[in-house]
Fold each of these.
Amino acid sequence: MKLLVLNGPNLNFLGIREKGIYGNQDYAYLIERLQKKAEAEGHELEVFQSNYEGGLIDKIQEAYYTGVEGIIINPGAFTHYSYALRDALASVEIPKIEVHISNVHKREEFRHVSVTAPVCTGQVVGLGLKGYELAMDYLTEKK
Ligand code: DQA
């Protein structure tokens, strides 16, 4: 399968930012782990991170043209307020899983709202970096 992992703002700062919440492993570690898993299972995986809303939207639109079959997205803080990102996700009929490393429901109230989750297939929350792998398993398993 052709898969796309999208990470939003500040996720490139994994291992640097708020380690008590997001852990000690850095962004490079996450990407390597996902690439290895995809390779072992025979999937083609593209990974993209942007601190800019438009960068993520461009990538979602590009996925439409390039035949991406599954999207795993951690929109970071855009989750909570980006209607533009939500509209981009809603525009493509590709299965999409929203991932959050932390349990957003245990945190500040503004994190309890996701404007993007209603246009995703499902959501994995609070299971650390493992959440990305679980999302990949869901997208690639034969249903
Ligand atoms: C996050 C949760 C968001 O509230 C936060 O803004 C992030 C990371 C997570 O993975 O837990 O940047 O999406």
Amino acid sequence: MENQEKKKIVLSAIQPTGTPTLGNYLGALKNWKTMANDYNCLYAVADLHSITVRPEPADLRRRTLEMYALLIALGLDPEKNTIFIQSMVPEHAQLAWILDCYTQFGEASRMTQFKDKSEKHPDNVNVGLFAYPVLMAADILLYQTDFVPIGADQKQHLEITRNIAERFNGLYGNTFKLPEPFIGKVGARVMSLQEPTKKMSKSDTNVKGFISVLDDDNAIMKKIKSAVTDSEAKVYYGEGKDGVNNLMGIYSCCTGKTFDEIEKEFDGKGYGDFKTAVGEAVIEELRPLKEEYARLINDKAYLYDCAKLGAEKASYFASRTLKKAMKKVGFIQIDK
Ligand code: ATP
Ligand code: MG
């Protein structure tokens, strides 16, 4: 616990919309683990966010616990850091409403995720989907967060968070810390294995497009082997080689090898050898996570205890910021 107060604050969240993909893992979760030692980290399962796509209630409950178990399986320590389920901390929804009133319709309309997801679910373009970035701003600002480890797809949402915070601070004086994104260099954007110009996404309906971190070894190898590449049969990073570029990025993330080293390694070899090597590297990378998860998911009582502790700790921090914001806006405050 020493220096806990002085450590910089890190917050990030992941939605329980499906099992995390290799993209979530390399773009976000792996960094979560790395940062856990040096920062005061708060990590959330963002279940409030995930009802924008209306999951089955039983599925949502199951996936939320699975996602929570996965976070602990990463090796995160629920005592040392704060690992929580977003809906158990009501301050998120409360601050989100306030911030909604300080977010312009025009700026929220410019979010590319809103446009993408509206196209994916044209029958359910709800106000929650539109206000998603504002809830995300609340998630972050509640904890006076310094850094937010995210994949490149969330960069725009972090910018709007800063804009909302600046606007609020400008009107009422310093209330929220302005957060910085933390985007890893490689793995920041893992692309779909089937459509390598689109990002890999756990809610993709084409399961061949993504590797889930709990896929068994055979499934991983099969999906990598059937990944879309090109007809050139030469392993190098280049324009128009989205499929190969993506596999190189994945391989680099899992092995620590640079793109130059990878090009040399596969000089004169075809895509068959390359894909086998990528598949094996991914399998090895995910093995410890899968083993730990298998152990934890059967211990519901332990997971519930951790979730309760996480929510208490998160709420303790969050309520301080919420109170401050409510006071500034002009809500009456009477001590209980
Ligand atoms: P959904 O399709 O439900 O939005 P998702 O795969 O985009 O699922 P999120 O829960 O929205 O996952 O995001 C969790 C974290 O994973 C975020 O930090 C996000 O930036 C990161 N992330 C998501 N997709 C990728 C990707 N393809 N490559 C790298 N990072 C990613
Ligand atoms: Mg997403």
Amino acid sequence: MRVLVTGGAGYVGSHTVLALVEAGHTPVIADNFSNSSRGVLERLELVAGVPIECHEAELTDVEATERLFRVEPIDAVIHCAGLKAVGESVSAPLEYYRNNLVSTLTVADVMARHGVRRLVFSSSATVYGASHASPLGEDSWPLESSNPYGQTKVIIERMLTDIAAAHVGWKVALLRYFNPVGAHSSGLIGEDPRGIPNNLMPFIAQVAVGRRDRLTVHGDDYETIDGTGERDYIHVVDLAAGHVAALDHLDAMTTDVRAFNLGTGASTSVLQLVRAYERASGRTVPYTVGPRRDGDLAVAYADPSRARAELGWMATRSIDEMCADSWRWQQNNPSGMSSRLAN
Ligand code: UFG
């Protein structure tokens, strides 16, 4: 299939582009490069060994999106584009609601006009909010989130459910990511956060490489294995394979819309991840314990059984592989995607 990957130059999008090529699909990237770098394209082509088409496009712009669908025959869309920083969404809710909702509405609208009915959407485990206990199953109800970013995912899931119900033949997979980490094993593609990383693994990576002095552990008084927060970290290459599995399953789906958790089903604490990273890198990761971070949960991990049963997909990469691949990426690319490629 010819698959439009919105946000295809970003962290999850770029790994998904590679997984699509590997599976014999043809990805077409649409990205506005607001939180990604053009340099990723050269690297994607190097790893994939084929040219990869990319359009710089603003998906909140109906005309621009319409133009894209006019020039590209598209069979399916994987919609990864969106703003994703929880803290930033609290201070800039207008921007988050406008960008994430309007771009999704625009993509869906243009899909409908062009008869494209297959959609895989990047959702998030944040839709489960704070009121459900782990392991989190897809039927947990109600869905809610404590921050505007998460709320955009809840609203978009609802929007897509209504759109799919009203348009004949639509098939939509809602992929609820747990905590994507790691990098492609080539060391060429990885996470390239701008400024101070919000998330744990990229922060640890920058401490290990000497770019930052120490990690602050956000609280060690939770009721968890060692007092620090537990999460379900999933290798981004496994996550990308989950997108292809969902895409390939769409036509066989018996409902218009189906949500799938993409997680491992296991949880790892902050300190366990620090230790694993130290092992992988051979470096010490100094840390201090600070107060809890607002809005954080003690524990969140997936029940991944639906994806296994229905998509035939499961995560296979261990925490040690996640750390080793992240470390390779971090060392090879001290300044992220703008680092020079070795000859
Ligand atoms: N943590 C630290 N220090 C840091 C950063 C994080 O101790 O500098 C801790 C957090 O308190 C938490 C764990 O590391 O216990 C993981 O934190 P992340 O910020 O990496 O990830 P979150 O689980 O908070 O959030 C992630 C995504 C969100 C998504 C959510 C869904 O970043 O986009 O998972 O569950 F909404």
Amino acid sequence: MYLVSMTMLALATASPSTATPMQAQKETVQGSGPIPAVKTCQVGFLPFETKIAVATVPSGKGVSSLVANVVNAVTGRPVLRVEGSAPVKDADSGDIVSHFDFSSLKTPGEYKVVVEGVGETFAFSIGDKVFSKAFRLAVRSFTGLRSGIDVDLGPDFPQYKFKAGHTAIGKYHTSSGKTGTRDVSGGWYDAGDYGKYTVNSGITTGTMLLAFERNSAKLKGIKLDIPETGKYKLPDFLSEVKWNLDWMLKMQDEDGGAWHKATTAQFTGFVMPDQDKADVLVIGTGKAPYKNTTATADLAAVAAIGARVFKSYDPAYAAKCLDASKKAFAWCQLHPNELYQNNPQGIGTGGYGDGNAKDEFLWAAVELYRTTGNTAYHDLFLKTAKEWNDTFSDTPAPGWPELRPLALMAYAQIKDKPVDKAYQETVKKGLETAADAVTARVKANGYLMPLKSGEYYWGSNGVIANYALVLQMAYSVHQKPAYRQAALDCLHHLLGRNLWGTSYVTHVGTKWAKRPHHRPSGADGIDEPWPGLLVGGPNADGKTPPAREWYDEEASYRTNENAINWNAPLVFALAEFL
Ligand code: 9MR
Ligand code: 9MR
């Protein structure tokens, strides 16, 4: 009964008559096949944490009396019996849900939660190392997006490989202000498409470097089986990140400014990278100075973090990063408001247009201060930061056009350099207020996640992952255990405790997204997609209930593409809990 009515709802809300032009793609079936009635994280739980399974309660059932057994997944033997919470409606999905809290179970093992008369979860683990595999796959998804080098995800996924793509020398597009060729090879493809965008690379690479900086003791020894493994003095994780940072440095012109992107003129079809023979173009704003402030300030911030992170492993590279960062920052001071808002004529790849470069500048200033201790950067940070009158808005998740949260959190964490004490206190307090609000939303949500109803936009899963990052940074500053738990709940949501009972990360969990809008997955002739990709997730586009607007279909790029800026905060969140 219940399933039938949900199907009808699915058909109704997916009706093409309500589609906007951005939804012209074919989208037929919401979610990813049959929805299990009882959902939880398909990876597992750390022993100490709060463990909850969510049952979708059949409508009309006598619902006050639901009972679950947690059973040993191997023997089927019950180990714990728990009662469900009073069913409530989860507004964003429309589901009636009941929670089963089995936190008292701390013994490592494999379990399932069986709700009498309703259904059961997939098997999951309790243990200290539950996130290791998800972490490995999520990091190696970047390896699988490398441009300009043969890619092979062996030994664990040997069938996933391709020949080096986009190896021909790049060409200056007229919008770049130059003519001739430029080497812009390498780097990571942005997403399911083969473009490389400086702005989106910025937040992505910065997030990856920050993940390493915070967790270097754990990450430095992790072997990733990438081309550099065993060959260089760098930890594998940093070799992977350097692959893209090297590309970002190639996007910097002699005057210090960075071009916006290196892509073909239009998106290619679903072919493997080496089959896309169109020219890679260096694309700028189309008017002097041709480079733009958001791209350049992002480069300045990332290279400043890189200068710190690489210092003890490769001082020469760290110095190169610092030099690039300073030059980029100086360019931004000369050109504070050069905006890339629309693609130049003839260019149809991703826009990453942004009408405000202040937040990128703020991020660059604070990271350069953290790296150098130079008070000029500190003064510029303070002056710029104080142009906003609140410290954090109540939506503190960073995103590619919104770097202010990362900048402010960077400032909140400075301990080894002089700070404006009063302002740092204000920022810390703002972070606390924001993290309290996010934590409260996670607790109140039927599927224990942080989004507001208005935040189900393109890449909402990336927003969830970025909320986890915010909670973890807030935990470092305020040590409230509830922040850690809420960050874990964000992960559990992405890994299966959601309305679909589906992991949004390919090959992680038992039932995971199968049809990402990812060109190699679509073109390689293998049925299953490439591993470790976090798909964009629900994108309501005005429809209600908003959480239901997810389609596990290749055509649905607006809900089911992968992207490096969503995978990076996933890596960050997982790294903390390794
Ligand atoms: O495939 C493209 C995807 O990678 C982008 O994220 C998306 C939005 O910019 O655009 C996709 O390309 C579509 C294009 O915008 C419109 N025609 C259909 C294309 C999908 O095959
Ligand atoms: O993540 C981007 C999202 O915020 C935008 O709304 C959307 C449409 O412009 O584009 C998304 O980024 C895509 C980029 O333009 C091209 N590569 C794939 C990205 C993820 O879909």
